[in-house]
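Researcher: Structure prediction, please.
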Amino acid sequence: MNGRTTLGSEDPRIARSRSGVLEAAAALIMERGPAAFTIDAIVERTGIARTTIYRHWPTRGDLLAAAIGTLSSPATIPDTGALRTDLLEFFVRRARAMQGDHWDRSLQSLPGIIDAARLDPALKAVVTAIPTGLQRSVVLMLERGRSRHELRIDRNLVAIADMLIGAVFFRRGFLGQPLTEQYLQEIIDYLLDGVAPTGARPKGSGSRPRGTELVEQCRGERSDGNR
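Model: Predicted structure follows.
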């Protein structure tokens, strides 16, 4: 048995112990990073015997990979009938999931997780699967939008997805700034305006992107100051 085995009809006591170990392991990763992750530390936190832990996860790497896999929940892909509203709903949900101390600590542990994955092929597969799954979800929505003629057919959908995801993680993970719905609306509008068919605006967008008034106001203030 390993960390990827489905519970099925498993004894509830065994399921609780597995869940307790994974929760403790994830908390340890966020608090101390992967380098300080040990089976002894898990035993100390949970009181669960080493033999029980190794019965479910034969190696430290197996448990580490399973714990990291719990740090990201699967993304639900909305289908509203319009690309802009699909993307907005998707990223608003992710933004809400990224709020709070739990996610801040997850982001702080991310460099250590990436570094550990370079040395462990099994861990690398788990770590890579998390952003890859997010990218695939966004590409799927973009493909649907292109089939509805909301995007130009000559645009690289993976590149568009990377720009959207990158903007979100840069703002939250590196700048530490909140992901407001207005900000998400702006980056989605700006990007979709650039890849929409000539003469068309993406379905679901307003008459003009949010933030345009602020830019014009700044330009006006700059002109007044130069007089």
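Model: Confidence is low (pLDDT under 50) at residues 1-7, 207-219.
Researcher: Thanks, that helps.
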